[in-house]
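Chapter review: from sequence to fold.
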Amino acid sequence: MVRYHTERRDSHMQQGRPGPVPPAGGCRPRRGAGSGRAMRRQRGVTMIGMLLIMAMAGLIGYAGLRLVPLYLNYIKVARSMNAAAAEFKSDTPDQGAVRRSLDKHWQIEDITGVESKDVEIVKDDNGLSLHVAYDDSAPYIANMSVTVHFDKSVKVQ
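The token string follows.
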């Protein structure tokens, strides 16, 4: 759109050149808030966009908070298995002694979600190995839950 001024039109006429012709009715067009130029100056995120971003961040953050206890429990399991394996490092242990050691560490660490009897103790050529694989879940929202699979192996040498 072009802005019309009477001074400009008069100056063009004085020089003998035709100037811009104003529209009929004497109305002068102006640039308003609805023009493309004003829209180009606006920057940033709309309120709805910001709410969507905050909702997504909140859901992901809440899932992270629900997963923290599961990973802390896994750290306890790994620590107990490593401690039981360290007790019998130089000895030639039997599976019963290792199982008793695991039971003791399970009680000390107060591990939930998996029992010490779920740990497989396998004897091979190099000694014993401890292996546990389990799934742990936590409620998320309504009838949805978050499930994580954990797998840990330790060699007793």
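Two observations follow directly from the output. The mean pLDDT is 83. Residues 69-156 form one domain.
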